[in-house]
Design brief:
mainly alpha, 3 domains, two-stranded antiparallel sheet, 6 helices
């Protein structure tokens, strides 16, 4: 049974559509009968989509969280990426790795024995993963 607000107009046409949850939803056919102006219908039969409201957006977010999260992430990425000022061609290069290890580089340059020790440790740590003759399959 349609709500009283739809039957009050008298001459409006209604249709019933069954959804997956078996609940009947009554829709008023736009552009026919009296009362269509009260429901927000325009003269050519167009009305604003259901998801263009705060409740509609919340429903889309609730029913489709992964695509909504992807879309929000994409919009955030675009907002950040396309508003960052570009680096000028004549600007000096900036490498954060060199800045973070500047103190360690100065300490190694001042002590050649430390450089040799770290080089030997590097060789020892990278030697075991090398294939041995027994594992040649």
């Amino acid at each position: 049974m349609p709500p009283p607000s739809l039957t009050a107009a008298g001459t409006t046409t209604t249709t019933t559509r069954r959804r997956n949850d078996r609940a009947a939803k009554v829709h008023q056919v736009l552009g026919e009968g009296a009362g269509t102006e009260e429901m927000g219908a325009v003269a050519d039969g167009w009305t604003r989509p259901e998801w263009c409201s705060a409740a509609g957006v919340a429903g889309v977010l609730r029913r489709h969280p992964a695509p909504a999260l992807f879309g929000c992430g994409l919009l955030l990425f675009m907002a950040v990426e396309y508003t960052i000022p570009m680096v000028k061609p004549d600007a000096p290069p900036l490498d954060l790795g060199f800045l973070a290890t500047a103190g360690m580089h100065a300490a190694i340059a001042a002590r050649p024995w430390l450089n040799s020790l770290l080089a030997a440790l590097n060789t020892l740590l990278h030697g075991p993963p090398a294939p041995s003759p027994r594992n040649r399959g």
